[in-house]
């Protein structure tokens, strides 16, 4: 047990170092998150917008500027965490296969990726919530940060799955960008007339948007929103783990070529037999 924990800690430490060395991602975290939230604040007027909480039927009269900041924060954290996990998984795929071939337990590698995802999501979403609190005061900032974190980890799981399955980097980046943009644009009542339609129930960040809005503008605890988002998070995590399993599976099984016996060398310790004529 101790040996497995030690291997997990080693894999997690190197995973966090790899994320920290991704300078472009660190720049996006430090600059893009506050810049994007600030641009949303400047661009969107502070008109009242109705937003319906589907689990309770309550219609909130939210400030459009503040609601857009929540939607912008969700977009930013989902995109950045998704890109970070995709880039880390895509670049380390061959190395993970070699580690598995050398006997490193795949469970430790997979759990280390999940731990890195949790750490990165908690730090980034806490930072995004702090930026939002600089402009206005959400009713329940802790629940707001938790909703952002659940959405970010959902996209992080999708990033792991795409990084393990796809063979070209541009495909994964495009898939994550388009999914996040469509996901957030459709749910924003300022940008979409269909934000109250039944279609939004099937979007990956639907539960997080419901929970974050409830946390920002009401005192109710959005249990249903968190439950829906946790279901999406579990599904994306399982998809990422399955993709990682498929990516490293072949390195643990002998191929048909490895079963073919090669030429054997004589053992120098054994006496030579009589020569055959």
How many beta strands in the DSSP annotation?
2
Shape: elongated
For the report, how would you describe the main beta sheet? Answer: 2 strands, antiparallel
What is the first-to-last residue Cα distance? 59 Å
Order of SSEs, N→C?
A: HHEEHHHHHHH
Mean pLDDT: 83
Estimated structural class: mainly alpha
Measured by DSSP, the beta-strand proportion falls in under 5%
Question: How many H/I helices?
Answer: 9
Strand order of the largest sheet: 1-2
Uncertain residue ranges: 251-260
Question: Over all CA atoms, what is the radius of gyration?
Answer: 24 Å
The proportion of residues forming helix, as a percent range, comes to: 55-70%
Structure description:
The chain is built from nine helices and two strands; from the N terminus they run ααββααααααα. It is mainly α. Strands 1-2 form a two-stranded antiparallel sheet. A hairpin with a 6-residue loop joins strand 1 (48-52) and strand 2 (59-63). The longest helix is centred in the N-terminal third of the chain and has 28 residues, at 64-91. The radius of gyration is 24 Å and the shape is elongated. The model is unreliable at 251-260 (pLDDT under 50).
């Amino acid at each position: 047990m101790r040996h497995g924990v030690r291997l997990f800690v080693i894999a997690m430490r190197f995973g966090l170092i790899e994320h920290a060395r991704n300078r472009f991602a660190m720049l996006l975290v430090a600059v893009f998150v506050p810049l994007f939230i600030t641009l949303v604040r400047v661009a969107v007027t502070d008109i009242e917008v109705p937003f319906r909480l589907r689990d309770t039927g309550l219609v909130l009269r939210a400030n459009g500027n503040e609601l857009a900041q929540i939607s912008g924060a969700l977009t930013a954290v989902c995109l950045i965490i998704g890109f970070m996990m995709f880039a880390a998984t895509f670049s380390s795929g061959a190395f993970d296969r070699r580690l598995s071939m050398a006997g490193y337990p795949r469970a430790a590698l997979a759990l280390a990726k999940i731990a890195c995802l949790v750490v990165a999501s908690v730090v980034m979403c806490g930072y995004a919530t702090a930026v939002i609190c600089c402009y206005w005061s959400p009713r329940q900032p802790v629940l707001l940060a938790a909703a952002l974190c659940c959405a970010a980890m959902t996209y992080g799981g999708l990033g792991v799955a795409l990084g393990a399955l796809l063979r070209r980097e541009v495909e994964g980046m495009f898939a994550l960008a388009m999914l996040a943009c469509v996901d957030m644009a459709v749910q924003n009542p300022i940008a979409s007339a269909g934000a109250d339609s039944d279609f939004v129930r099937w979007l990956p960040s639907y539960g997080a948007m419901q929970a974050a809005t409830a946390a920002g503008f009401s005192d109710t605890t959005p249990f249903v929103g968190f439950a829906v988002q946790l279901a999406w998070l579990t599904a994306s995590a399982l998809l990422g783990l399955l993709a990682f399993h498929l990516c490293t599976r072949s390195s643990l099984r002998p191929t048909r070529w490895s079963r073919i016996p090669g030429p054997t060398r004589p053992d120098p310790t054994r006496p030579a037999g009589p020569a055959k004529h």
